[in-house]
Amino acid sequence: MMELKELALPSINKFASDYIKNKLAIQEFFHYDLQEQNVYRTRLKDLQERTFKRQELAEYISTYMSPLGLTDKIKQNLNALVEKDTTVVIGGQQAGLLSGPLYTIHKIISIIKLAEQQSLNLGKKVVPVFWVAGEDHDLQEVNHVFVQKGNRYEKVSYPYYQETKSMISDVPLDFGTVERWASDVFQSFGETRYTKTLLEEVKYIASESNNFSDFFVKLVHSWFKDYGLLIIDAADEKLRRHESDYFEQLILNQEQITNQVMKQQSFMIEKGYKRTIELEDYAANLFFYDIEKHERALLFYDPDTHQFKDKAGAYIFTKEQLLELAKQKPECLSNNVVSRPIMQEMLFPVLAFISGPGEVAYWSELKLAFEWLEMKMPPIVPRLNITFIEKDIQKALHEIDVDIYEVLAYGIDGAKSRFLNSIKDSSIESLYGQMKNQLIINHQMLSQAALHYDKGLEPLLKKNADLINEQLDFIYDRINGSVEKKHNHILNKYIDVQNQLRPLSSPQERIINLYYYLNKYGPEFIPDLMKVDLEFNSMHKVVLV
Length: 545
Hints:
alpha/beta; globular
């Protein structure tokens, strides 16, 4: 049975922190204020004034997900999606190997939980949808997991050389390679009664997967199918055919969309925030995807030639040609960070968008672009932030007398330094300080006397002083090392706490993979987690497992 504690932790992202703490004039950045009691009812009413291609969308998702296996809950959600009153809670992430870091799982759980909660609150069906960012081409973001080896975490990367900027959904999986890679990863977890079955399942799913996105989608579906989670891949050709009309709108409004984003960015800078979206003048906010070469090229509008082209000039289109491409071959177009949220809003009746800290900031830069297209941004809901604490780590924290808040907010180094200072021999500290000061004084006196006879000795004397200092520091460090060795059993607890709660000095969710916990606690880990009452109250969730 998992237990829950909540903490108010500081946020690294200033804008996201101000948003969560309600320090913003919300209407300057967003269309909906999460602090308003009836925010979701207001959003629901606004959505009912718009039309969506619900039947086509539901049929597409059903076709896409059918090979995965449609559970009763998924079928119910697909049927509900056709109805006018139905809305969705949506969020997305890249297709990381073995699902990537924990924050992807936290985002999916957030989507499902908020959809469930608002279905009850509104008395209307709210469907959870996860958007796989298969269009992205940054393989280095998704081609690895971190595993603990010895006293530290190391990156274990899938060995594949990416020759072009191909979409992640087009990066092939070689079964033999992924089998060896997954075996290495699981070996680092240690053998448990669950290891063999889990690894066999991973290998089987990998054998049935053609690319990174396939692998990711099949894993996520296997974990969350019973909660009715709908999944789409932004890179899927059939989806982009469904987006054809919307690509045309993006092309026709390209200049104003870019101008409106830049206008909002200037406003944010005036308010003391840094811009998040790197946007250049005349950005088209679309990529051209060369299907034959598997190459993705960002397009810009050239006002001198009235053409759309990439920076290298390899792909050049008139507006008419690009519009024809959107109509006849939309699979050759894909969205960027500006157009993806707009496309999402055009496709889905979005009750709420589940965001990470960085996404909160970049969505705020899109407000005027949405208004230009006569739409409102959905309520932007920060995803749940979760840290898992195992029983042995709970015990270690108690034994070293360190508060969980300090570790999660600031890391373990401060507490470790306090302990090291407490075990130092004060007499040795005093003698070391006295000796060092006296050596400096004596060496300076000797140097002054020597330089009186020979100025050329200055470099040699300086080098000699440095060597003496180095040797004294060496002996001092060896003494401290001997003292610390006697307390190794305690110092190892600091290392264990660090590795589990702030691995590589990062939040747990950015380093550790879900399979670490599945391997240790079995497949019931996810259902047990889903039973925990997780509220969207801006508090950090500490889950005791």
